[in-house]
Amino acid sequence: MAKPPHLPHDRAVLLLALLAGFPAVAAALYFTWHDHHDVSLQLLITVVLAACWLGLAAATRERVVRPLQTMANLLLALREGDYSFRARAADHGDALGDVLAEINALGDVLQSQRRGTMEMTALLRAVMERIDVAIFAFDQDRALRLVNPAGERLLAEPAERLLGRTAEAAGLADCLQGEPQRLLPAGAFPAAEGGRWGLRRSAFREDGRPHQLLVIANLTQPLREEELKAWQGLVRVLGHELNNSLAPIKSIAGSLGSALRRHPRPPDWEDDLRSGLDVIAARAESLARFLQAYSRLARLPAPALAPCDLASLVARVAALEGRIPVEVRGGPALPLRCDAAQVEQVLINLIKNAAEAALEARPSGRPDAGVRVSWTRRGTLAEIRIEDDGPGLAQTANLFVPFFTTKPEGSGIGLVLCRQIAENHGGDLELSNRRDATGCLARLRLPMGAARSP
How far is CA 172 from CA 169, 188, 222, 304, in A? Predict the structure, then answer.
């Protein structure tokens, strides 16, 4: 069935006005012509009635339609972004005035919002122009839609040539895939003046369409500052350790020299000489251990990956601890691919520390304190857990600070070396106090895959 034609609103109002006045006009004409008055007078009355009728109907139409046209013009201006128009006679108290007042208020709100948006856009543009970080935005078709001056300098081309290019044409295709946060290889941007570059990639939406944002920063200066801080810290630690060893050696050597030059010598001068030489030898040995431990950390080679049976590796290391039994609780069969020698050294250090902690707890009322080793799978990682019943960790914040140790004969290198080996394999090492009881829990996580370069 065909839909009846739609009657426009203004014509519908006019028609209703005509229909509303038609009964009265028809009755007036009936009585005018029915009483047999003068024909000319009847025609005059008829014309006057018809004119009034049509005029009032047209005025009614105009009264209804004109405010609607005003509101339509105001809304059109708002849709087009022109917020300068306002409706007059927008007074509260009647329905039409309330509608016009609300439209005016809507215009004020939109004008304020656009002003704030423009100010924020200007601020963002000023920040993007002045920061020394390259920013790129790509749309869903991998076409470049935004670049700041730092990005232009990085690619050595103006924005007019870069905008609209695909990521492949701009030389940034590799940045849109892989890890979203990583260091880029040296020489990634031939037009730039060398340096190391860090990448951060995130996703956002504009008009409901996915976009990707790239932030590329030059890390050369921050890395140099961190390197300088590391060297300064290393020099302070080395200087402290050397002074701790050389100061007593110098003092004792001076005392022994004075004793040898004295005549006559005291009867126990040989005992003093022997005691002084023993102290010098002990301090020299301690200094040699310290330098040897640092040398091991500095010369750590890259892991040589090979298939490794985790169960046999843990059993072999556990058997090396002769002071206290190490319980190997085991776990699922995990075909680990790692540098067995380096991982074995990590396990030796961790089990040695756990055994020393358990032995420390035995004289204090815990004769059954021991060490347990187990492993499990966490996604793509193999997690080796070493648990002890010792007193726990007093300071967890400084565990992996180089040269920090709580042991009288410790070098402060062991845990740092263990974590470095784990990270070179692409894993990590975590030490924490147990929650279920007193003691420490070490978690060594190693990926069952390729390792990263150190």
Answer: 8, 9, 23, 32
Strand duo 371-378 + 381-388: pairing: antiparallel
* pLDDT tens-digit map of 280-324: 787 777 677 666 666 665 667 788 888 888 898 898 888 888 788
* Helix and strand element counts for the chain (H, E): 11, 12
Q: Are strands 144-147 and 133-138 parallel, antiparallel or unpaired?
A: antiparallel
What are the two backbone dihedrals, phi and then psi, of residue 90, each rounded to the nearest 5 degrees?
A: -90, 65
Contact yes or no for 214/177 (Cβ under 8 A) = no
The whole-angstrom separation of Cα 247 and Cα 78 is: 83
| Percent of the chain that is helix, strand, coil (3-state, to 5) | 55, 15, 30
CA distance 125 to 118: 10
Count other Cβ atoms within 10 Å, centred on residue 410.
Answer: 16
The helix (H) or strand (E) run that includes residue 430 is strand 428-433
Locate 124 and state its tokens. 């963002």
Query: Which positions of the chain have pLDDT values less than 70?
Result: 1-14, 16-25, 27-39, 41-42, 45, 89-93, 186-187, 190-195, 223, 226-228, 230-231, 233-235, 237-238, 240-241, 244-245, 286, 289-299, 365, 395-413, 449-454
Q: Is 97 helix (H, G, I), strand (E, B) or coil?
A: helix
Residue range 321-342, pLDDT digits in tens: 878 888 999 889 887 888 888 8
**Contact between 136 and 147 (Cβ < 8 Å):** yes
Per-residue tokens: 250: 């110098």
Whole-angstrom Cα distance, residue 120 to residue 123? 5
Angle (deg, nearest 10), helices 269-298 and 220-261: 170
Q: Taking the CB of residue 63, how many other CB atoms lie within 10 A of it?
A: 12
d(CA 114, CA 95): 29
What's the token pair of residue 260?
């040898």
The three state secondary structure string of 178-214 is CCCEEEECCCCCCCCCCCCEEEEEEEEEECCEEEEEE
Is-above-0.70 flag for pTM? Answer: no
